[in-house]
Write a structure and sequence with these properties.
This protein has 1133 residues and is α+β, with helices and mostly antiparallel strands. The protein has 45 helices and 19 strands. The structure holds zinc ion.
């Protein structure tokens, strides 16, 4: 320090800049934090002088001057903070100019070049525009030629490489550097394992990785056969770095491979170089050392990317079942589906293996400007105020709406005595002619248990023949439940007579190989005693359920009944916690998948269930699958290994996608073995299965031993992108997409069990009909309950409509008048068949409305409830996830529903339009849904103001008057219902939702309190149920709480009450808070608010935009220049 000071004084005399440098140097020596402000001041003065005075610049950079050293030392003292000052004062440009000037001198001063590059290496990463500035100033070539001349000069090499690394982060620079041979140059520096010069190697690899992000450079590297070279270098380091001192080098090598394999040629080269095996075996050897996780994760990322894309093993992605529509609208998705010639392969795209379709990158790299403003607004928010204002005109003429008058007799009844008993029962439905079969079990020995005598020993299900013959058969009155249901055998001639039916055919198959059972067909029958679920489940009755099934029309003409729907479900009393994610689960699963390729001989690939072939395969060695019952939707099961099965879900009818809901049966399991199930054609980019949600399992053995219930089951659950390619037809035109795997592992407890798996608690259409009949029985003289058939669905099923209110207390005029003037509450549910939770919430609502409690009575006296409990019966029956038989999402049809294609929506809207036409607009409308990506229960509502706040049209929102009462009901719910979360509610109207029930009922019908109520499929992360998965009890409770909230809403509308409770509701304060949230920098996102978890391997990214999977924990500041890789990455992104 003294030496520098002396030399500065000597060479520069007493110039101004010298004085400043001297001061700065003194401060550097002291390095006291409180002096930071002073040194900042001095630095900026020096910069100013350099910038404005040619003389000063010369003074500083002159030979023998130590000006640069002082600046350098100054930058080193307080880490990156002074660098920031330098950048903010325009220091980058000055330094770059100094570099140019110096390079023009001959011979250029090596010392000065070294110093300048050392400073630039520090300044560069702090300056977002550094890459552009360097290019514009012509600095790129100076560094490159300096590098070329000094490959052996390690002292100079390091800072040059460090600067080059920063240059390379800019994509335009990367292309230009590649053209100048920098990729080849860097490869000269990379050598075999050596403990020397690891800093240089690390920077070289990082720079190379940055350059290889350019597709042109990646192609160049493939052409020069660098892929096998990099793999060999990686193996070399893997072998020699036995004490794991250089994980950062090994990871940097993988970083280069990762970027090369972003192009198809790179992946090909990787496979040809045996990359899969190399990375697989090196990773396997790393598994035991936790600190090597970054290597394993990056390796697995590369292997997944390079894993050859497989064809989904189905003939077509269209649904196995087809339903002939009355007409096919030219613009609809179904027309698109059937416009394709029947023989077109829609499973994979036409092979384009030979030509590398990746566009040349010279043109696609001009994206450096997009870094400037990454605040992307959610462009789905409706900004057109005219689309947010009420729509006045009714789309249907008044005389047309007259047809709905008959659904509102409560408005005209005068309650003479006879009327009081005239409530209709539901329309009698035509009975199916096919036999109804409770499937699967067969029987070596008759078994009989007295009713109620439940045994703890698991029953041998193989010893039981359960079946049910056609309508009209069996069932003497007054007998026990078991006798009524179970004594009827499936006659062989019945089977033969029905051999056309695929389902019966499959049963025959089972009979053939099951000697035990066929021996009983002669008349010796097994009797299965089932628990009296009626005692536990007031609304359930197996016999009635079978009756209901007979009237249910499915497209595949199902004749079987799934046990869980037959026995019913009694919610368990134990708590089911949200599953904690075990570290490394996804990685382990992916490695097992990769082993399919590494050890192909271990793979069975045996099809055990195939709906396309209409047959079930069973040789006694594999699990048996079935889903040919209401709401079932398994398409195919392939045994991959002894205890692993790939499962494929069927598409919604008349559609080629929407796979999420599942419901299927498994039997033939071994006790104690862990079975892995993979649903391999999932479509969503992420799932609550990554955040603690488990699948549901129903064990028939458990059921008959007294616990008929769905239980959250499964370990090692995760959801990730797999190697099955998704055609552009399936992916909405996008090429190169993959499906996702949802995997779970189950160990079965009972021998000869029959188990069912489902995405969520099933709730079939037949279950609804059974519940509605049972609700009739709850009617008291005080309750007005009417059940109508609103319309028939496309599939010929009836869509029930319920009217519930209180009978007038007397037939006095006052009472009749009060009765007729009760406001309407209009509720709907289950437009999306896969959202079964919505039906359980609705069940809770209906039970509450029919209950004898004073609160329920008070509620009935307050409102008339119009309820369509299942808007999409056909979708539910046929195991769809999203659509109706028209292949469309019915909750996108509310603007212009077609009476032929969307009858339930058309007529439900008709009811609302009728109410509007007679000035009886409902007070509240709510559509019950389920949400697959969020926790808790919450509501979406509609507010012009809150929508406009999301946009920049603030001015328009200011002079807009809007009643805040749309927030009241959700607010009440958040105080009443433990599962409900106000924080998750939103009142923003999105463009993509403009044809949903909620938005149309708000805009067109004029219901201010129009909501979608979303219930989680997973569980809660707040309130009383925090940390628990949601069950039917909580869902039903939610439905009841909704009713209580309506009662409170009514009380609040009394002015006196409102005054008392407005402070506790504090709706206005909430609103202000939510507005504050809006004005914060984060953009408004409706979906995905899960925090990331430990195992941060990508779930969604396609191969070209994968994020850094992890910050490198091995990075040591000594090795680098104070900035870690992740910091660098942050700067660059
Ligand atoms: Zn929904």
């Amino acid at each position: 320090s003294l030496r520098i000071k002396a030399s500065v004084e000597q060479s520069l005399g007493n110039s101004r800049v010298l004085m400043l440098l001297g001061q700065l140097e003194k401060l550097n020596g002291e390095a006291v934090l409180s002096d930071a402000e002073v040194s900042r001041h001095i630095t900026s003065k020096i910069l100013h002088l350099i910038q404005t005075q040619e003389k000063t610049r010369k003074e500083i950079t002159a030979k023998g001057s130590s000006g640069m050293e002082v600046i350098l030392a100054s930058l080193e003292v307080s880490g990156g903070r002074r660098v920031g000052v330098l950048v903010s004062k325009g220091g980058t440009a000055i330094l770059l100019q100094l570099l140019i000037t110096t390079s023009k001198e001959w011979p250029p001063s090596e010392e000065l070049m070294l110093q300048l590059h050392t400073i630039l290496a520090k300044v560069g990463p702090k300056d977002r525009k550094f890459g552009i500035k360097a290019r514009i100033n012509g600095a790129l070539n100076i560094t490159v030629s300096l590098l070329k001349q000094n490959l052996q000069n390690h002292k100079l090499l390091l800072p040059c490489l460090q600067v080059l690394r920063v240059y390379s982060a800019n994509s335009v620079n990367a292309v230009s550097l590649g053209k100048n041979g920098v990729v080849e140059l860097l490869f000269k520096i990379i050598g075999p394992y050596s403990k020397k010069n690891t800093s240089i190697l690390k920077v070289t690899l990082d720079t190379l990785a940055a350059l290889l992000k350019s597709k042109a450079n990646a192609r160049r590297a493939v052409d020069r056969t660098y892929v096998p070279t990099l793999l060999a270098v990686y193996q070399d380091w893997h072998r020699n770095d036995t004490r794991h001192r250089h994980v950062h080098i090994r990871k940097a090598i993988l970083g280069c491979i990762r970027n090369i394999t972003n192009i198809k040629l790179g992946r090909k080269a990787f496979l040809e170089a045996d990359g899969m095996r190399i990375l697989y075996s090196t990773s396997t050897e790393c598994l035991s050392v936790r600190t090597l996780d970054p290597l394993i994760n990056t390796s697995s990322l590369i292997m997944r990317k390079c894993f050859p894309k497989n064809r989904l093993p189905v003939p077509t992605i269209r649904s196995v079942f087809h339903y002939q529509l009355p007409h096919i609208p030219a613009e609809g998705p179904v027309a698109q589906l059937y416009r394709q010639p029947p023989d077109v392969d829609d499973v994979v795209d036409e092979s384009d293996d030979n030509d590398d379709t990746e566009a040349d990158t010279e043109n696609d790299t001009e994206n450096e400007e997009d870094e400037k403003n990454h605040k992307t607004q959610n462009d789905d928010i409706e900004t057109d105020i005219s689309k947010l204002r009420p729509k006045e005109n009714l789309t249907r003429p008044l005389e047309d709406l007259k047809m709905y008058e008959c659904f509102f007799p409560e408005l005209s009844e005068n309650f003479q005595v006879k009327v009081l008993t005239s409530c209709q029962t539901p329309a009698v439905l035509p009975k199916s002619l096919a036999p109804i079969v409770v499937p699967t079990a067969h029987a070596p020995s008759p078994l009989s248990l007295a009713q109620g005598e439940l045994t703890d020993l698991p029953l041998d299900l193989d010893s039981i023949c359960i079946s049910k013959d056609g309508p009209g058969g069996a069932g003497g009155a007054g007998e026990g439940l078991a006798q009524e249901l179970e004594r009827v055998a499936l006659e062989e001639d019945t089977l033969n007579g029905q051999s056309q039916s695929p389902v019966v055919g499959s049963l025959q198959g089972e009979l053939e190989h099951d000697d035990d059972c066929s021996s009983h067909s002669s008349g010796e029958l097994g009797v299965l005693e089932v628990p009296d679920t009626a005692a536990l489940l007031p609304l359930h009755d197996p016999e009635l359920y079978i009756d209901m099934v007979k009237g249910t029309k499915s497209v595949p003409q199902y004749t079987e009944v799934a046990y869980p729907d037959y026995f019913g479900h009694v919610a368990p009393t134990f708590r089911e916690h949200i599953l904690e994610r075990v570290y490394g689960v996804q990685r382990a699963k992916i490695f097992q998948d990769i082993e399919r390729m590494i050890h192909p001989n271990d793979i069975l690939d045996k099809v055990v269930y195939d709906l396309d072939l209409k047959r079930l395969i069973d040789d006694g060695e594999s699990l048996k699958f079935n889903s040919q019952f209401e709401s079932g939707n398994l398409r195919k099961a392939v045994q991959v290994r002894k205890f692993e099965y790939d499962l494929i879900l069927n598409s919604d009818i008349n559609s080629n996608h929407y796979h999420q809901w599942f419901y299927f049966e498994v039997s033939g399991m071994r006790v104690g073995s862990s079975y892995r199930f993979n649903i391999i054609n999932c479509e969503k980019v992420n799932s609550q299965f990554n955040y603690g949600m488990q699948v549901l399992m129903y064990s028939v053995q458990e059921a008959i031993s007294g616990h008929p219930r769905w239980v959250r089951t499964g370990t090692e659950i995760c959801y990730y992108k797999n190697h099955f390619s998704r055609s552009s037809i399936a992916a909405g035109g996008q090429k190169g997409k993959s499906y996702y795997t949802m995997t779970f592992t189950v160990t079965f407890q009972y021998r000869d069990d029959v188990c069912y798996f489902a995405y969520h608690y099933p709730y079939t259409y037949s279950t609804l009909k059974m519940h509605l009949q049972k609700l009739e029985a709850l009617r008291t003289p005080q309750i007005y309950l009417r059940q109508d058939v609103l319309c028939e669905t496309l599939g010929g099923n009836s869509c029930p409509l319920l009217t519930i209110t209180a009978m007038p207390q007397s037939s006095s005029n006052d009472q009749i008048c009060q009765f007729k003037n009760r406001p309407y509450v209009f509720l709907t549910a289950r437009v999306h068949p896969g959202e079964t939770n919505a039906s359980w919430v609705m069940k809770g609502t209906l039970e509450f409305l029919m209950s004898p409690s004073p609160m329920a009575q008070s509620l009935r006296e307050s409102y008339v409830f119009k309820i369509v409990p299942m808007l999409n019966p056909d979708g539910v029956i046929n195991g769809n996830h999203r659509c109706s038989l028209s292949g469309e999402d019915l909750n996108r049809q509310w603007q212009r529903p077609s009476p032929d294609l969307h009858p339930t929506i058309f007529h439900t809207k008709g009811l609302l339009q009728y109410l509007s036409s007679i000035q009886r607009v409902p007070l509240v409308y709510c559509d019950y849904h389920g949400h697959s990506r969020k926790k808790n229960v919450f509501m979406y509502g509609c507010s012009i103001k809150e929508t406009l706040w999301q946009t920049n049209v603030n001015a328009a929102a200011c002079d807009l008057q809007e009643d805040l009462s749309y927030r009241t009901l959700p607010k009440i719910l958040s105080q009443l219902a433990p599962a409900f979360s106000m924080a998750s509610c939103s009142f923003v109207v999105e463009k993509s939702k403009e044809s949903t029930a909620r938005v149309v009922v708000w805009r067109e019908i004029g219901v201010q309190k129009s909501y979608t109520m979303e219930s989680t499929l997973c569980g809660c992360d707040q309130g009383k149920y925090k940390g628990l998965q949601i069950g039917t009890r909580e869902l039903e409770e939610m439905g009841a709480q909704f009713c209580i909230a309506l009662l409170r809403l009514k009380r609040l509308s009394s002015p006196l009450e409102f005054r008392n409770s407005s402070h506790f509701l504090d709706v206005e304060n909430d609103l202000i808070e939510s507005r504050c949230k809006v004005t914060s920098s984060t953009t408004y996102v409706l979906d995905e608010d899960e925090p990331s978890f430990m195992e941060e391997v990508d779930y969604s990214a396609e191969s070209n935009d994968e994020p850094e999977p992890d910050p490198d924990p091995q990075e040591t500041p000594a090795d680098e220049d104070g900035l870690s890789d992740s910091e660098l990455a942050l700067r660059r992104s």
